[in-house]
Amino acid sequence: MSFYTEAGGQEYDTGNIIINGATDFELTNVQSYIGYILHTGSIKYGQLSVGDEVISYNELHHWPLHSNHTAMHRGMYRISSYLYLLFLIHVFI
After folding, report:
1. What pLDDT, on a 0 to 100 scale, did the predictor assign at position 1?
2. What value does the CA radius of gyration of the chain take, rounded to a whole number of Å?
3. pLDDT(2) > 70
4. Contacts for 78 with CB less than 8 Å, ≥ 6 apart
5. Residue 26 or residue 65, greater confidence
6. Are 40 and 5 in contact (CB under 8 A)?
7. If DSSP codes are grouped into helix, strand and coil, which group holds residue 7?
């Protein structure tokens, strides 16, 4: 499970990360810094440990972001392909 960082106009993920039903981490922001992903939030109850496996997250917020993220990649691919085609036409005509 990946949480989206804020980048390129893409909104970051928020919500709650539930770990084994014993920990609830309220995620308020996700950012990328120097190649690391920083999850900002607070622990509502329980504790976090290295290696804990996330078993639940806020799907209602995540899936629209997922669809938007995919659409942005597809759109950028089409735009870049179109611009490249225009460049080739300009160079060789």
Report:
1. 57
2. 19
3. no
4. none
5. 26
6. no
7. strand
3-state secondary structure 15-61: EEEEECCCEEEEEEEEEEECCEEEEEEEEEECCCCCCCCCCECCHHH
User: What would the pLDDT profile of 34-87 be if each residue is shown by its tens digit?
Assistant: 988 888 999 999 998 888 877 666 666 666 666 666 666 677 778 888 888 888
What torsion, rounded to 10 degrees, do the Cα atoms 64, 70, 73, 75 define? -70
Side chain identity at residue 22, one-letter code: A
Buried b / exposed e across 45-82, counting CB within 10 Å, b at 16+? eeeeeeeeeeeebbeeebeebeeebeeeeeeeeeeeee
Q: In this structure, is the dihedral angle defined by the CA atoms of residues 24, 28, 32 and 38, taken in order, positive or negative?
A: negative
Say which residue the tokens 């611009």 belong to: 83
What pLDDT sits at residue 60? 64
Tokens 């999850």, residue? 39
